[in-house]
From TrEMBL:
Keywords, sorted A to Z: Membrane, Transmembrane, Transmembrane helix
PANTHER family assigned to the protein according to its UniProt record, in alphabetical order: AMINO ACID TRANSPORTER-RELATED, MEMBRANE PROTEIN
Locations listed in the record: Membrane
GO cellular component: membrane
UniProt record, GO biological process: transmembrane transport
Pfam families tied to this protein: AA_permease
Primary site of residence: membrane
Membrane topology: Multi-pass membrane protein
Transmembrane segment boundaries: 28-48, 54-73, 93-113, 158-177, 197-217, 238-257, 285-306, 337-356, 362-381, 393-415, 421-441
Top-level taxon of origin: Bacteria
Protein's recorded name: Amino acid/polyamine/organocation transporter, APC superfamily (TC 2.A.3)
First and last residue of the signal peptide: none
């Protein structure tokens, strides 16, 4: 960063390709919650298989603390880096090209795998209507429609997510009240008989942390839309924090209702636990609503995943870390249309493996590695830009404790993943290691350092001591 390009050159680079600034706090809420809410319709229940019913709710709350801490410093850094790419952009300015390349790849695969999990659940729940239904055409049409919507513009995309996410969340509330939980004499919930406590002890809780992430995984992706916010300093903090509170409330309700209606052994292996809980009520209208809610949650998640993964891929291409063809902006819609279209078949391909827990595990692994690097970047960010040296839209309180919490809990979750998924861990680490070798030995020769930092040079000040 000793030789930043001059202001004129950076402005020319910035004006040659830019995204539309059209998003407000509600859109950021819809992006974050829309991606994550599907995790309350599926995937979270594997915490019960790993740690039992009590281990599941402990993992839900403990991992919630991880995400509260992550959102604090993620939002602080994101609010002063109004550029598409989120944690990738942070790594670009704070850690350099190799780290930025790895963070970008991790973000892309986190969201591509999440979209793949969405397509798996859509296929499975459609089969509940009739085993003769061919799910493939519906899944392809859904992904094609969402890809087209993202192609046409992020504003319409996230307006749709506000509607889809809102309806899906309301179905969870309807399921809660349908059980009459508020009446001791009429309540359908029976936690005492349905739950199984801590069958694997404290090690089970550690193992449950992995899928506890699924309650919240993706909320940190709100920073990926920073460049498209009308007011980054306002939209990011408000949208992300309100979104996280929404998820913590929804996650607790989800565990409470599902654990009181479905036996733990069945719940821990379910593909669509909230729908199974609705079936257990025996009320047709509730069953139909949760069927719709599950489908809408999957669509909202896939919609947000397409937006987030394409922004990360676009940013890497714009900075010449990957081929520049993907950095093209549509002249009319101002969207990274090539990145959007390119990632669609990759997500579909992983979706049709049929291995839901394996797909989820790779997404979680990629996310945890991003969290560890982001926590480290927070320490470096505060050293390079102390409070008062740069305008911040939001200041994370209690530094460095949130970063230390994220490091400790992310490391504990990775350790817990070893029990049952050690092959996935090794495969994931091997993949990113090989990708790093490819970058160092091949792609780095095409890296244009002036392009790499030019986009933010007009607003990114020289750090303290440089």
């Amino acid at each position: 960063m000793d030789h930043l390009p001059d202001l004129k050159a950076s402005k020319e680079a910035s004006s040659s390709s830019h995204l539309s600034k059209v998003l407000g706090p509600m859109h950021i809420w819809a992006l974050g919650v829309g991606i994550v809410l599907v995790g309350q319709f599926m995937g979270w229940n594997f915490t019960i298989a790993k740690g039992g019913s009590l281990g599941s709710i402990i993992a839900c709350w403990v991992i919630g603390i991880l995400y509260i801490s992550l959102i604090m410093f993620n939002t602080e850094m994101g609010s002063v880096m109004p550029e598409a790419g989120g944690q990738y952009s942070m790594a670009k300015y704070l850690l350099g090209p190799l780290a930025a390349f790895n963070v970008g790849m991790m973000l892309v695969f986190e969201y591509v795998m999440l979209a793949a999990a969405d397509s798996l659940v859509v296929g499975e729940i459609l089969k509940t209507i009739s085993p003769d239904i061919q799910a493939l055409p519906y899944i392809i049409l859904s992904i094609l429609f969402l890809t087209w919507l993202n192609y046409r513009g992020v504003h319409a995309t996230l307006n749709l997510n506000i509607v889809l996410t809102g309806i899906a969340f309301i179905t969870i509330i309807i399921l809660l009240f349908s059980t009459k939980f508020y009446s001791p004499t009429e309540s359908m919930l029976n936690l005492k008989e349905m739950t199984n406590g801590l069958p694997y002890g404290w090690m089970g809780i550690l193992g449950a942390f992995q899928f506890g992430c699924w309650f919240y995984l993706g909320i940190e992706g709100t920073a990926l839309a920073a460049e498209e916010c009308r007011s980054t300093g306002r939209s990011l903090p408000v949208g992300a924090i309100v979104g996280l509170l929404t998820l913590i409330i929804g996650a607790t309700i989800t565990w409470f209702v599902s654990s009181g209606l479905v036996p733990a052994d069945l719940l821990g292996a379910s593909t669509y636990p909230l729908f199974d809980a609705a079936v257990a009520t025996g009320k047709p209208i509730v069953i139909q609503l949760l069927f719709v809610g599950t489908i809408l949650a999957c669509l909202a998640s896939a919609n947000g995943c397409i937006a987030d993964s394409s922004r990360a891929w676009y940013s890497m291409s714009r900075d010449t870390l990957i081929p520049e063809a993907f950095s093209a902006i549509h002249p009319k819609y101002k969207t990274p249309y090539r990145a959007i279209v390119f990632l669609m078949p990759i997500s579909l391909a992983f979706g049709f493996t049929g291995l839901l827990d394996q797909v989820i595990t790779f997404s979680i692994l990629s996310a945890l590695l991003v969290y560890l690097l982001t926590a480290y970047m927070m320490f470096k960010f505060r050293r390079m830009y102390p409070i008062g040296s740069i305008d911040r839209g939001y200041i994370a309180p209690w530094h460095p404790f949130p970063a230390l919490v994220v490091i400790a809990l992310a490391a504990a979750t990775l350790f817990g993943m070893y029990f049952g998924y050690w092959i996935n861990l090794l495969a994931g680490f091997a993949f990113y290691l090989l990708a790093s070798f490819w970058f160092v030995l091949h792609r780095s020769k095409s890296l244009d350092m002036s392009r790499f930092i030019a986009h933010g040079a007009s607003y990114w000040p020289r750090p303290k001591g440089y």
